[in-house]
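Human: I would love a firmer grasp of how sequence relates to backbone shape in proteins. Could you go through the record with me and say what the backbone is doing? Here is the record:
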Amino acid sequence: MRALFYLKIRTIINSIKQLKEKPSKLISALFYLGFLTFIFVVPSSNTQRNPLETIAGVEDFSLLVFSAILFLIMIFVNTIAWHTGTKRGVSIFTFPDTQFLFTAPLKPATILLYGMLSQVRTSLISTAFLLYQIPNLKRLNLSGNQIVGVFAIWFLLVFSNHIITAFIYAISFQSEKRKTLVLSVVYGLITLTVVLFAFFAIREGSFFNGFLKFIETKLLYLIPGAGWAKGILDGLLFGFGWLNIVCFAAFLIAPIILLRLIYKIDFDYFEDALSMIQIAPGTDQQAEANQAALTKYFNRVKIRKTGLNHGYGESAIFYKQLREHRRSRPHLIGLSMLVLLLILGAMAVSTTGSPTMKNPLIFWGASAFMLFFFSFNSTTFRALNEHQFFTLPGKSSLKIIYASLLGILLAMQDLVPAYLFVIIYQKFNLLLLIVGLLLSGSLFMVFNTSQIIVFRIFGEIKSAFSTMVMITLSLVCSIPGIALIVIGGLGAFSNPAVWSYLLIAVGFMVNCLIGLLGVAVGKRYLEEGPIR
């Protein structure tokens, strides 16, 4: 066991040494820490605590909404983590230090749990990212102890999900029936949650009243993980009862029991782990059969054999990405499109008749928030990780533009159904569809710029720290454009004037200029490589 501690300590020390060897990483670390410190030095806008508003006869309505939103986020994290455990091989097997331990005389469970330690660092950094929400938590009149409790609940949830992921993998990696059973449970919990909400909405005869009953019901505490965390959170916000104490006990005891069970399971996952690192050899007949099956599958979608300029020059990058996208997503409808349509559609339906919510800016802001997370799967990421991206002849600036173009177009395509539904249902001007798509596309350019800058600094975006720097930089770069668009939009819908439309146009131009900055930085990255 001492060897494991030594290996982990040396890994941490080497990461710290890189800050000295690469000044660019040190600067980015100071920038990130400085941005976090900025949260604490900015005084609160309200010096006195105001009582929370009462809506529809419900006291502390804002706290109930906060509890519901955090619960939905936690159940989403639960679903992703549990689903990951059913996949062939888990991501920890790709870590070099974990591969190094495969030949060590250690129990498989020890190596499996050691690989999870790297993910604990991600949990800590993601918890630190919640520091951005401290001003909002203070506006909810939360005390310092309650805010610390919210952070602790989030960290324990993410950490316990790592243990659950390892346990699910340990019991199901050799059994398709168990994988199917686990997936049935995972998506069954999601389905039951939706059915429970629909039941309250139908019984109350109102979407709003059904939502109130849904977020107040104690039945949600029965959901493992996210439900227990909600029980503890409600105890912090509204006072502990016996159910909240039971949730707290289950939240602490369940991970310990799962750890014990993992150590008792005798399993050999070496071949499964090897499949994450290299492709296992097979017979020629099997290889031919697999190739024939892939060809048959890909041929279902007809793809033109010529792209822009017949696939020559810098446009070959765009054409290659387009072909890969068509093969991986042969149908127009994808997960991101469905998520945007469901969330914005639910907002449009639930806010019908509310004069305060009849503002397109609210729906655009919600889509921009989701677009921020969808940008992490951009085509720019994949292009910057490919060697031919550097060796392809042509102008570096054009290569960056073509590498980013498909991601922007796909983001705008996914937004079209959601925007159309909102415009038709809320009876907005159809011209807002074009305006919303242009503003969202310009915002995606800002996120692309942040990714390129972080690539220029780190040479890759794989570590948790580089990811957090990218997230922070994306937020900082998007503030000027979003602020101008919001101010102009509020003026345009409350008291239309020329200056409000000019502010929206200026915000759009600011986003485009930041996008051009990304092209310039990317050009230097292709020509010189990462900053040392």
